[in-house]
Amino acid sequence: MAEPLSTDKIEEALADLTNWSHEDDKITKEFTFDNFRDAIGFITRISFEAEEQVHHPEIFNVYNTVTISLSTHDAGGKVTEKDVALAKTIESLYNN
Which of 5, 33, 83, 87 could form a disulfide with 39 if both were Cys (CB 3.0 to 4.6 A apart)? Predict the structure, then answer.
């Protein structure tokens, strides 16, 4: 079972993740793209990485906007290192 991070540890991790926020026991970020196709392409790239990490985000898409929320189910829906690691991966996909 994954161990939840303290609020201090979460805030420390978010300092390295641009525009991610922590609320309701999740870390979340909204990503904006030029069009729907680019947004869906981003979601597809995330899906491959999430499968590799065996950790799956909540994904919400409307047209060119994708909102990602991360928490760990086996840690009681709290934020863990697994969420931080996937957030870093998602950032690298967005910045490429």
Answer: 33
Q: How many domains does the chain have?
A: 1
Residue 96: per-residue pLDDT: 65
pLDDT tens per residue across span 16-52 = 999 999 999 999 999 999 999 999 999 999 999 999 9
Q: pTM for this one?
A: 0.95
The answer to whether the beta carbons of residues 19 and 29 sit under 8 Å apart is: yes
Contact 40, 61 (CB under 8 A): yes
Nearest to 84 by CA among 67, 96, 66, 72: 72
Q: Which domain holds residue 53?
A: 7-94
For residue 26, the SS3 value is strand
Question: What distance in Å separates the CA atoms of residue 20 and residue 11, rounded to the nearest whole number?
Answer: 10
Q: How many whole angstroms separate alpha carbon 77 and alpha carbon 66?
A: 21
Q: Give the span between the Cα atoms of 28 and 36, in whole angstroms.
A: 20
